[in-house]
Specification:
The chain is an alpha/beta fold. It has 8 helices and 29 strands.
């Protein structure tokens, strides 16, 4: 983008789809980096990961019990137990293993390798545990009674070949595809990577999103309110929403309605932002300072050579378009790039519901695109549902309205939650969806099928 002054695109109404396409058209996935496993949680894998070794890497026991030869326990019962000589213990991590010969058994623990000669494992509950008594409830700890690694054990039930044995490669075989590129790494995926020996993985990092709210009337929660002030909820809502989308969120406390202060704050935050989000100050009021501040936040100093002129600037530093969208809530919006790295910035309206709906429609997709997710996972999923209501719902002509809803998947219905006012944040807390009323519809009768965007 080439202009250093904000552009006011308010001479026409943009559609929701046009604005979203403009946002996504300017956002590129972040460059891949190599991260330690836990640092990669929530990131998107950029390469296929194959299995270097079979998992499990050896035949091992799925039970605490005794490794035996099947012929030795054939026909065993409580009345006529098979009496076997115990030749040693096999614990998880054991190196040297005893060989199990005819008439012999080895105590074996869950996860321990199956010793040579053994063909099956009988659970300890099927034996006397080497005590000479009845059925054992468990094994005596080796440290407390080392003598039980020898002596005799009575087996009360037969076991077939490979009983209670996890076969080598029964989970994955060497050369198998463990995880495909594009996979979002959650706890199970991290576990698999660790299990196959990967200490690091190549991913697109989680985007760093800085959220700033504006308004001299805003007070931080926990502080006393004075006349004319309200608590700042937007920055908390949007930072939480950014985290929910997969980003690392940095919340900046409310910035007063002063262009110089806001400008300085934005410049300070650029160093740690892959995406900037402001809320408030984008309409046509005398104190809507986001427009005012962004008219002179750029051009910013360039990172030119050491002998460059002190006044050298990056002429492509900033361009923010302020526009009106054919939607309710959320008509005033701003979007562009800022600073020498052309960091995307989305300027959202200040009313709480307008701000949150705008985030869901525009900022969340931008975050997901930065993560490198496929197009099918960039936007929230939507379904068709039948409106359940006592009377028709009104909608302004020429505007796509997003009403808060409660969706019932079992009945395939959706109900309105609260009114349409953009300040009604309590209703938003009880909504799990957004009902979408098209631009050409001014009244929605009960029983009408609507598109419903699922928020959960």
């Amino acid at each position: 983008m080439s202009s250093s002054a904000p552009q006011d695109a308010g001479h026409r109404l943009w559609s929701v789809d046009e604005h979203l396409a403009d946002v996504l058209g300017a956002v590129r996935p972040l460059e891949p980096i190599e991260l330690q496993l836990l640092d990669a949680q929530g990131c998107v894998l950029v390469e296929d990961v194959t299995v270097p070794v079979a998992l499990p890497p050896f035949d091992n026991s799925s039970m605490d019990g005794y490794a035996v030869r099947t012929a030795d326990v054939q026909g065993a019962s409580e009345e006529f137990p098979a009496v076997l000589t115990v030749v040693g213990d096999v614990a998880a991590g054991s190196g040297e293993l005893p060989t199990v010969g005819p008439g012999e058994a080895a105590r074996i623990m869950t996860g321990a390798p199956l010793p040579p000669g053994a063909e099956a494992v009988v659970p300890v509950e099927w034996t006397d545990g080497g005590t000479g008594g009845g059925a054992a409830a468990g094994m005596t700890p080796a440290s407390a009674a080392p003598e039980h690694s020898g002596g005799e054990v009575r087996v009360h039930r037969a076991a077939g070949a490979r009983a209670h044995v996890r076969a080598r490669g029964s989970d994955v075989q060497a050369g198998d595809l463990a995880l495909a590129a594009g996979t979002v790494l959650g706890p199970p995926q991290i576990a698999l990577l660790a299990a196959i020996g990967r200490g690091t993985v190549r991913v697109r990092p989680r985007p760093r999103v800085v959220v700033l709210s504006t308004g001299s009337e805003l007070v931080q929660p926990g502080e006393p309110l004075t006349a004319g002030t309200i608590y700042d909820s937007n920055s908390f809502a949007l930072a939480a929403a950014a985290r929910d989308a997969g980003a690392i969120a940095y919340r900046v406390g409310a910035v007063a309605d002063d262009a110089d202060t806001l400008r300085s704050t934005i410049e300070d935050q650029l160093i740690r932002a892959d995406l900037l989000v402001t809320t408030g100050g984008v309409s046509v009021g005398a104190y809507d300072v986001v427009k005012e501040a962004l008219s002179s936040v750029g051009p910013l100093p360039s990172s030119g050579s050491a002998d460059s002129d002190e006044d050298a600037v990056d002429v492509d530093a900033t361009r923010i378009d302020f526009r009106k969208l054919a939607m309710q809530p959320g008509k005033p919006q701003g979007f562009g790039t800022i600073g020498p790295d052309h960091t995307p910035l989305l300027a959202l309206p200040g009313n709480p519901v307008s701000s949150y709906v705008s985030f869901e429609l525009f900022v969340r997709p931008a975050i997901r695109a930065l993560m490198g997710l496929p197009e099918s996972e960039v936007r929230r999923p939507s379904v068709r549902a039948v409106l359940k209501a006592d009377k028709a719902l009104g909608s302004p002509a020429g505007r796509r309205q997003f009403l808060r809803g409660a969706y019932d998947a079992e009945s395939g219905t959706v109900s309105a939650v609260g009114g349409s006012g953009s300040h009604l944040i309590a209703a938003l807390a009880h909504a799990d969806s957004l009902m979408v009323v098209p631009e050409d519809v001014t009244s929605v009768e009960p029983g009408t099928e609507l598109e419903v965007v699922l928020l959960g």
